[in-house]
Amino acid sequence: MRILVKPLMLLTIVRIALGEDAVVVRFPAEFAGSLPAGPAAGRMVLLLKSTRCREPGEPCRAPFFSDPQPVLSVPVAGLTAGGSVRLGPDATAWPGPLDRFTGAFDVQAVFKRNRQDGSLLAPGNLVSDVVRVDFDPGSDQTVELSLKEAVRPEPLPTARDLVLVEEPSPMLTRATGRPVSHRAAVVLPPGYHDVAHARRIWPTIYVIPGFGGRLGSAAEIQRLLSLPGAANSLPQAVHVVLDPSSPFGHHGFADSVMNGPRGAALVQELVPFLEDRFRLVRKPEARLLTGHSSGGWSSLWLQLTNPDFFGGCWSSAPDPVDFSAFQHNDLYRDGNLFQDPQGEPRPSFRRPVGPLEKVLMSVQEEMGVERAIDPSGGSGQQWDAWQAMFGTPDPVTGMPARLADPETGVIDRALVEQSWSSYDISKLVESRWSRLWPVLRDKVRLLVGDRDEFYLERAVRRLKEKVQVLRSATETDPGAAKPTGFIEIVPQATHGSMAAIARGRFAIDMREHLRRHGLGE
Fold this sequence. Notes:
By secondary structure, the protein is an alpha+beta fold. 25% of the residues lie in helices and 26% in strands. The chain starts with a strand and ends in a 5-residue tail after the last helix.
């Protein structure tokens, strides 16, 4: 069988000869201009998606949490015109080599070369067309793919009230040894350009996207703020959508060895710059934080580690806030990340079905896909991002040290105690209780659904219980004012539905906060 797809911008030949158990990727000389800087180092990733896969999207949209799909990859020292890359038995593969695959798959190649953004679809990476292949171990097949274009930066609408900011960061550049800039999308509220408007200096809401998110959500915020009557339902403030991307994935705005002082640079560099440029109120009560999922963790972390700088945090479905309930793992007591003591797989993703639930991906499967994308820890996916945020460099490779052995799942308990535990929000609250209880009481609003697909309610429940115990032991005044902050676990809400629920509740609560501090309309 021979399948040929006509080239568009640049041609790559992927030869799948099942008798040879190999894939060959060729880069014809006539398209050398597609890599104007010369030979490019990176990783060639081959992504397969079964035609029976339940999730939508091309193979390059992997990983597919509800139905993990095969991945193979090899390192590329320098992709040159006229050269080729072979993916054979020595390729890193999940769940196994090519000769194990049978049935119909959509196949796509990605040349991953962007070193500043770890995602598969980072700007500058090269993506092929999709070709359908019927894998038959007994046949010899040739498939040709067209690597049609480089991924382009995420487009933002051009509007007077939406401004893209890219400002060099001396702190991050010094720490990482490479040029690093702050990136943000600033959404200006109606009335900002009106010289007759009652407000000339504005409060700020810092919005942190979830995992894989960039600046695109600024367009939706801009649209909502411009709707008639928006002032009656949405907080009237400058909204700043922050960019959480890094070479390893979502950096979480946490100061770390691998990512650099992300939180400190935000507070000391970017926020002062924005307050100068956009007429922003320079008071803690006018600096608000919000985010969902990984952005929810980041907003909570920034509030608790900068309690006097930010005036409030609105966090929904955050990544694990207590590492004794890291999804279904207790990182302090469990010996294995992949299996429980009975040998059952540890779940990572579930789908609620009526009163029941179905586990669709295990931790071992999720980490297996990430390792197949890049075995050094640079996949840009969730576990590799956590290892860069919470861990330390591997002394041999310089890449993030692995939380667990990728083959056996055995947890590096020394790494957990010496590094990861420093980012355990529940431990942070306990160790600084007298300082942080007023912050939790008055500034933190935290929501999570009790049917979160990633089991994130388990850690929030632990945090809530710990706060209740510590509060009962230290607060003796029965007439104390009712807290304005809260930690709530919402019945029947999932990870996705929680985002919509939180948006509505948080908008009302933020408006009340601004009004209470004389910053409302």
